[in-house]
Write a structure and sequence with these properties.
Oligomer: single chain
Radius of gyration: 41 Å
CATH superfamily of the largest domain: Bira Bifunctional Protein, Domain 2
Bound molecules: 3,4-dihydroxyphenylalanine
Mean pLDDT: 90
CATH class of the largest domain: Alpha Beta
Strand order of the largest sheet: 1-5-6-10-9-8-7
CATH architecture of the largest domain: 2-Layer Sandwich
CATH topology of the largest domain: BirA Bifunctional Protein, domain 2
Shape: elongated
Structural class: alpha+beta
Distance between the termini: 99 Å
Number of domains: 2
Order of helices and strands: HHHHHEEHEEHEEHEEEHEHHH
Low-confidence stretches: none
Helix content: 25-40%
């Protein structure tokens, strides 16, 4: 018997090795219970540091005569592994699908494991929606306006005199706005009140009009009752023959809708440049009652028995002129109020800052 030469033995050892690997991977593929295990088994045979790579280290010792044959064997082996892999992968996917279809269905009625906490509207959003609802019931439409506003709309068209303290650089947040094609930039600012929407609506539409609008406004103010950003609601009604009687009727209806059907209401003369005459509406203090002796100590109404609720008045003819509405034909009333104060009164919140810190421990109480 001839002893196999070294080179014969290398080729032989590769052949034997391939047979052993073949039995090994078939077995492991069959046993792989999921895709992950199957991929690991495949990597074990064909991977860079896998069994085949190790076996092929012997290739160097295979004689030239045997090389093509051994090379072909190796290629066939690789192709077999790939085929077996693909087949088993398909089998596993089908089995998983079958298990899903035939297994016990998931019980969709089981309670979740995560406790999902239910959110709710911010206290300011709550009172905003309440106030808007009262006016919607009175027939007002709801409109919106931009928070970055032209000086012209925020002040000039509302008949603020140029030297009015509110127009002071210190009181407003001014914004530089480049105007395309214009030599000078537009004078713009963060609106200081929602009365701007009155101007925009009067310019864009024709009376009869009844509109309310809510949103954020900005002023350079910051203490326990003032925040640089706060919220207002403004509204107005314009038609032929609107008088102060309509103003009183609508705003009294609003105050009663908001603070109770028997809430006492009073109008006090006041001044705003865009109305004439101007007034302020007070509602009887909801925190102290006239006869229970608590008024003297009421801090909210400062023992006066009245809470200031809003500013109002008959729209100034100058405003109509600035907005292209004939003041000889039309009259109207307007009003505006701070929403943060309404929320603070409603919920007994002592500092306006609490409303903007968004601390859930605070907000979840409302
Ligand atoms: N804009 C005023 C303010 O911010 C409030 C106000 C007063 C609005 C009278 C009005 C109004 O529409 O008629 O203090």
């Amino acid at each position: 018997m001839n002893e196999p030469t070294a080179t014969e033995s290398a080729a032989h050892r590769i052949e034997v090795g391939l047979t052993t690997l073949g039995d090994g991977f078939r077995d492991e593929f069959a046993r792989a219970a999921d895709e992950h295990a199957l991929r690991a088994a495949q990597a074990k045979v064909l991977g860079k540091k896998g069994d085949l790579t190790q076996l092929l280290a012997l290739m160097r010792e295979v004689g030239t005569a045997d090389r093509p044959r051994i090379g072909a064997l190796v290629n066939t082996f690789k192709a077999e592994v790939e085929l077996a892999f693909a087949a088993r992968l398909r089998e596993l996917a089908e089995a998983a699908r079958r298990a899903e279809l035939e297994g016990t269905p998931a019980d969709l009625t089981l309670p979740g494991r995560l406790e999902l906490r239910r959110g709710h509207a911010h206290p300011i959003a709550q009172v905003r929606d309440e106030v808007l609802d009262v006016f919607r019931d009175l027939g007002f439409a709801v409109a919106d306006g931009p928070e970055v506003e032209l000086e012209e709309v925020n002040f000039t068209k509302l008949a603020f005199p140029p030297d009015h303290p509110a127009t002071d650089m210190q009181d407003s947040f001014w914004v530089d706005v480049a105007r395309r094609g214009a030599a000078s930039p537009a004078r713009a600012l963060l609106r200081t009140h929602t009365t701007t929407v009155q101007v925009r609506e009067l310019m864009a539409r024709k009376p009869p009009l009844a509109v309310v609008s809510a949103g954020a406004v900005y002023r350079r103010d910051d203490d326990v009752t003032h925040s640089p950003m706060f919220h207002q609601i403004d509204g107005f009604l314009v038609d032929e023959n609107v008088s102060f009687a309509e103003l009183k009727g609508a705003l009294t209806a609003f105050a009663r809708g908001m603070y109770g059907a028997d809430a006492p209401v009073r109008f006090r003369p006041s001044y705003f440049p865009f109305v004439e005459p101007g007034a302020e509406l007070d509602v009887g203090c909801v925190f102290c009652r006239p006869n229970d002796g608590s008024r003297a100590s009421c801090r909210i109404c400062k023992a006066t028995g009245w809470l200031e609720v809003l500013g109002c008045g008959m729209i100034h003819p100058e405003v109509f002129e600035h907005c292209g509405i004939d003041p000889e034909r039309y009259t109207g009333f307007a009003f505006g109020m701070g929403l943060d104060r309404v929320a603070m009164l409603r919920f007994g919140i002592p500092s306006i800052r609490l409303l903007f810190e968004n601390d859930p421990r605070f907000l979840e109480q409302f």
